[in-house]
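Help: read this over?
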Amino acid sequence: MLNFVLCDDNRNILNRLEKMLESIFINNNLSGQVVFSTTNPDNFLAYIKNHPFDIVILDIDLKSNLSGMDLANIIRKRNKKAYIIFTTAHLEYMMVAYKYKTFDFLAKPITIERLKETIDRLFEDISDETNSFFKFGKRKEYINTNNIYFIQKQGKKAIFKTLNKDLELYSSFSNILNHLPKNFVRCHKSYIVNLNKISYIKSNNTIAFNEDLDGQCYIGPKYEHLL
C-alpha cells in the first residue's frame, strides 16, 4: 500500500483532491491511500517526521512562511526516493520546482483525467523500482521496502511486518529475497530481517527494532554470523 500525504492551503481543494485520488485507486484497483492531508505546513512536517510516506502532493504557494518548495527541500534532505508532485495556479514556478527531483507538476484547477494520467505513470514507474518497492504477486499492490521491519514465515504464507499493519503473501523465502535489496537477510529459518531497522540484539537472540512492533523476530544459531 502506497501512502500519499497532501498539503494545500485551501481545505476545499484538499477535500476534492482526496476524493479524486480515492476514486482513481478504487476504479483502477491501485494500492494507494491518503494517510494525511493538511493546510498547515508545520503539521505536514511533523507528520512526515514520524510516519512512513511514499508520495507527497504539495501546493507551491501555501500562503505561509513555508512554501511547497521549502517543504520539498526538507523532504529531499531526509528522503531521496519519495515521489514529489507539485500543484499550483502559478505556472511560472514550474521550472524552479523541478530542481527537487519532481515527478510531475499539476496546473490548477486539477481535473481527474489529468490526475489519473499522473497516478498511472507513477505506478508504472514504481513497478520498475525493484530495489525500492516490493510488488505483491500479480496485484497492483506495492510496499516501500524501507517500511518493512521483518518477514515471518507461517506455513505457506509470508507475513510482512510494518509499523502500521501486516501484509500477507503466499511465496517462498528464496523468491522473496530475490526481489528485496541487500539489506534484507535471512536470520532464522522462519524470519527475514531488514538490517537497517535493527536497534540491537537482545540476550535471548531476539531482535530489538527502533520502533515497537507487534511480534518478535528471532535469530537462528546457523544465521548468527550474518548479523
Remarks:
- The helical segments are 11-27, 41-50, 68-78, 94-97, 112-128, 173-178.
- The mean pLDDT is 87.
- The two ends are 29 Å apart (CA to CA).
- DSSP finds six helices and 14 strands in the chain.
